[in-house]
Amino acid sequence: MAFEFPQKVLFKHCDPAGIVFFPRYFEMINDCVEAFFDQGLGVPFHDLHRVSAVPTAQIKTQFPAPSRHGDHLLFQLDITKIGRSSADYSMTARCGNETRLITSATLVHVDANGRPTAWPDQIRNKLQTFRGDTS
Ligand SMILES: CC(C)(COP(=O)(O)OP(=O)(O)OC[C@H]1O[C@@H](n2cnc3c(N)ncnc32)[C@H](O)[C@@H]1OP(=O)(O)O)[C@@H](O)C(=O)NCCC(=O)NCCSC(=O)c1cc(O)c2ccccc2c1O
Questions:
Q1: CB of 31 within 8 A of CB of 5?
Q2: Which atom of ligand 1 lies nearest, measured to the CA of 110?
Q3: N-terminal to C-terminal alpha carbon distance within the chain
Q4: pLDDT tens for the chain, residues 1 to 135
Q5: Which of 5, 45, 57, 60 could lock 75 by a disulfide, CB 3.0 to 4.6 Å apart?
């Protein structure tokens, strides 16, 4: 099951050439991850960050086609791997049938001291429900 996150391209996302500037895509990616924790996992960041955090250890992104002001993007997130303290996800953003962004990344669950710590069972079990087809 993929988690879905709609995002309309706004004026603030675009550069003078009229296309989405890549740092704004990374903000959209993080907005999708934040919504995933809140709505998908039932662990909103304002609760999670009282005791832990989930920084990004690695991320790889491709932009196969540009997005423009007014486009309606649909982000889809799948969990592809769950480790002791880490989780890999893949994410795409599409406008209609056209793919605009493909990304894969690793989040690591860390304690209040920033050290990797095992996922709590409640979060691990919810992550499992968003496992995609890969590995
Ligand atoms: C991320 C680290 C805390 C990892 O520490 P360390 O390297 O000591 O970890 P281990 O070797 O013990 O491995 C633990 C665990 O992580 C996996 N892992 C580690 N590095 C990688 C990697 N490069 N690629 C893939 N996987 C990796 C490893 O396989 C282990 O997995 P297990 O499942 O087996 O346990 C440390 O490296 C660190 O602190 N890095 C800096 C992170 C950072 O600054 N990122 C960029 C800015 S922060 C950020 O972007 C961000 C912050 C947030 O608070 C967020 C909150 C919510 C969502 C997103 C956030 C976010 O993106």
A1: yes
A2: 3
A3: 15
A4: 999 999 999 999 999 999 999 999 999 999 999 999 999 999 999 999 999 999 999 999 999 999 999 999 999 999 999 999 999 999 999 999 999 999 999 999 999 999 999 999 999 999 999 998 655
A5: 5
CATH superfamily of 3-129: Hotdog Thioesterase (3.10.129.10)
Report the predicted TM-score, pTM, of the whole model to 2 decimal places. 0.94
Token pair belonging to 47: 């609760």
Ligand 1 centre from 58 Cα, in Å?
A: 7
Q: How far is the CA of 97 from the centre of ligand 1 (A)?
A: 33
For a ligand 1 pocket test, name from 108, 111, 117, 127 the mutation site with the most ligand atoms within 8 angstroms of its C-beta.
108
In the chain, where are the structural domains located?
A: 3-129
